[in-house]
Amino acid sequence: MNAHDSYSSFTSLTLLGRVRDLSDQQAWDEFVQVYTPRIFSWCKQNLLQDQDASDVTQEVLMKLVTAMEKFEYQPTRGSFRGWLKTVTTNAVRDLARRRSSSELTGPSASEWLDKLTEPDSINELTEQ
Q: Which end of the chain is more exposed for a tag (fewer CB within 10 A), N or C?
């Protein structure tokens, strides 16, 4: 069983605590192994092409390096994965904003933006 399998149904509170220490390379390696496929999958669900999904995934991981140092898990506010999906969705929206208006015209762009607010996407934010 690899690290991704062991964390597929829950978030390790121990791992979340360990990644607060930026020098804990083993924790960060494990964190990246566990969450990179999940972040990439969320990007693809938002209709990003592979290259854009990879770019957004890397952007989210870079943001997490700073955020995790101060991150305090508060289960009453929601799941870690829900928070991470929100961070990812915001990064996808940021990408859309950075694109020129000519790239965001036509039905495919409209479909792409509509996907961000679908009930299923919103429901996934609350999954644990």
A: N
d(CA 71, CA 12): 14
Asked whether 32 and 61 are in contact (CB, 8 A), the reply is yes
Among the listed residues 29, 97, 90, 100, the one whose alpha carbon sits nearest the alpha carbon of residue 65: 29
pLDDT at 5 (0 to 100) = 43
DSSP letter at 76? G
Rounded Cα–Cα distance for residues 35 and 45 (Å): 15
Buried-exposed string 66-95: b where 16+ CB fall within 10 A, e elsewhere: eebeeeeeeeeebbbbbbbbebbbebbeeb
106 phi-psi bin (left φ>0, alpha ψ -120 to 50, beta other): left
pLDDT in tens, 5-45: 444 446 789 999 999 999 999 999 999 999 999 999 999 99
- pTM, entire model: 0.71
**Tokens standing for residue 114:** 């509509």
CB 63 within 8 Å of CB 86: no
